[in-house]
């Protein structure tokens, strides 16, 4: 079974009537994201493509493996956007990958009109993934560090 792209699914939906939604969902469920696990699967896929181990992401994000695993699998949910951002930096995600990860986790994407987010965007564009360097850039601009409240 060849996976359908989002564009293909969007095309199908253009011609789908309300009475056909149930049929559409039944037929296309294998191509749709499991909303509870979408973030985990996305992160795992991106990290695998970059040849980065989850163990290393937890270490670089400054969280314990057990806690980090619970957050990534969404066994536990966090409202700490900085924690998700630390995972993204530790995993060497690009800006589009980071924004997708944030969105999948249910958080706001990085926003260029927010000073702190703008600083993080610059770091991502310049491939600054080292937490100390990211924190230094934030501090130099009078902004709260990313690792200020890091979980152990």
Could you characterize what this model shows?
This protein has 152 residues and is mostly helical. The protein has two domains: 32 residues, no CATH class; 103 residues, 434 Repressor (Amino-terminal Domain), CATH 1.10.260. The chain contains nine helices and no strands. It is elongated and about 55 Å long.
Q: Can you lay out the helices and strands and say which pair or pack?
A:
Blueprint: H1 6-14, H2 21-28, H3 38-49, H4 54-61, H5 65-72, H6 81-90, H7 95-105, H8 115-125, H9 131-140
Per CATH, which architecture of the largest domain?
Orthogonal Bundle
Shape: elongated
Q: What's the count of strands?
A: 0
SS class: mainly alpha
Helix content, binned percent: 55-70%
Uncertain stretches:
none
CATH topology (fold) name of the largest domain:
434 Repressor (Amino-terminal Domain)
Q: Radius of gyration, rounded?
A: 18 Å
What's the pLDDT, averaged over the residues? 88
Question: What's the CATH C level of the largest domain?
Answer: Mainly Alpha
Number of domain units: 2
Distance between the termini: 43 Å
Helix segment count?
9
Pattern of helices and strands: HHHHHHHHH
């Amino acid at each position: 079974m060849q996976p359908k792209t989002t564009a293909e699914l969007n095309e199908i939906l253009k011609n789908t009537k309300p009475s056909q939604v149930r049929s559409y969902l039944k037929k296309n469920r294998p191509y749709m994201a499991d909303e509870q696990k979408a973030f985990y699967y996305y992160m795992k896929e991106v990290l695998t493509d970059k040849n980065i181990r989850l163990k290393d992401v937890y270490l670089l994000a400054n969280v314990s493996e057990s806690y980090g695993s619970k957050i990534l699998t969404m066994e536990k949910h966090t409202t700490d956007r900085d924690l998700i951002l630390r995972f993204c930096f530790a995993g060497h995600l690009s800006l589009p990958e980071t924004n997708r990860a944030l969105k999948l986790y249910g958080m706001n994407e990085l926003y260029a009109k927010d000073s702190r987010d703008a600083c993080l965007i610059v770091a991502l564009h310049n491939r600054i993934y080292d937490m100390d360097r990211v924190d230094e850039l934030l501090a130099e601009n009078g902004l709260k560090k990313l690792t200020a409240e890091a979980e152990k």
